[in-house]
Amino acid sequence: LSRWSSMAAAEATPVVPDEAAPAPAKRRTLNINVGIMGHVDSGKTSLARALSTTISTAALDKNPQSQERGITLDLGFSSFIVPMPEHMKDAPYDDLQFTLVDCPGHASLIRTIIGGAQIIDMMMLVIDVQKGVQTQTAECLVIGEILMDSMLVVLNKVDLLPEGQREEKVSKMQKGLTKVFAGTKFKAPAMIPTSAASGDISELISKLISMASVPKRTPDGKFFFAVDHCFPIKGQGTVLTGTVLNGSVRVNDQVELPDLKLQKKVKSMQMFKKPVQVATQGDRVGVLVTQLDAKLVERGILCAPGSMPSFSGVIVAVERVRFYKAACPSKRKYHITIGHSTVLATAHFFRPANPASSKPVEEGKIREFDFGQEYLSAEELVMPTAELPVGMQWALLLLDKPIIAPADSLLIGSVLDTDINANSCRLVFFGHISALVNPDDKDSLAKLRIYKPKQKVGSIKRVVDEDSVIGKDLFKKETDISMFINLNVTLDDKIPGYIEGSFGSSGQYKVRFKEPHGLPISKKGRGKGKKDDEDDGDDVGQAAGGNKIILSFKKYMFEPTGGKKSRVQQ
Fold this sequence. Notes:
By secondary structure, the chain is mostly beta strands.
């Protein structure tokens, strides 16, 4: 905090430049965000403490509740800087900064873990060498598979192993983990045994440096900043700390807090206690603004004014998490996490009616949703198959509350209301948003040509003549049969015909066939009190499993406002 105060004092005091003494060239620093993830009590925070040379205002369990409970409850941020390594000398930077994102490990804090993971470039998976893979270790591994391409495994607490057996036990653990990781996208990640408590981390630092590469980043695009902490500075204003996820921001820029519908001017910025004039994609900074109540902001978004949409319905090309073992049905609610926001949403899964017509997607590109295609409603989300490869399953997610986020955000669906003590994965599916929809606009939803194939089976009430019959049992008395007029039917899946119209008011209907049906013509009769168009003659029914009137059609999920419900056939 004193650093912010000294900056303010310096800004208030005019400085006359010494023309004879040229200002030293400003060192250029490349920032890489490294997530420290793993099961609770695996030593993640101790590792961050051992590695870090600069501590932020939110690091190393400074939260009083964290100190009281003895576990990490929130994201912590710290850093260390090294000279640019030889294999990165061609990059236009002088120093390499590792920003360490210390994620909680407790099962109840999975929302925070997912939010933290979406701002990091590479991952350190910390494993207690005495315990191996635990429940949250596995969930963190799943998150890593979804979000990252690079992972380093840290076998922590080797100092607690008997010295004479240490090498043998570490080797045994490494062999077991090799089998675990072989089935993941990381295949054979580097595994470094270490002891954060004893400070023996030189090999770990060397490995981190050797694995570092220049991330794909650009200052172009709309500014988007994920806020993870907020605090006031007396006499100065309010500091919003977070990570620049897109674009760039400069001192004196106008920025927006879309959740609060407020715009503010950037007064100053710091990157780990060093003042900066500009921050670009990937940078971890604190942004100082004025006249903002810090109590109104816990997590959220800072962005270019008017650049961030609010939405309550999305279409996503989804992939199921293979470690989730339960069924994943449509029409149930899932927890949807986008950045630091988690809301409930009802999911409707569907797939292309003709998968062969779907265009392949380039690697790294988001699949575009084609509103011109027809889609088949699915009872559940399934694992990819040869007939249904990755990218061919979609979800319509109707959110209980609107979310403000980029329109191409990555999201993760989970079931966080299950028992946190159960030894099972709670992460269900993931994917990038392809399109936004408004659930309250029926005309907009009607553009989604998602249908269910339906089949109704009726029977013959009376044979009128050689090519027409009166049918029953297809419809209820209150059904609007006009929706089905001219739809094709078959007699026992053999003789084609169509519904000519309703017959009476009791759900009966007239079918005309396109060729003689060969059935004996019924005697015409009319019971007491029956009208001319209500038949009470012979009831042919379904004789020996035959005489079935079969109607197959498509029932669309959404119809336009005021539009007549339709039933469609090929």
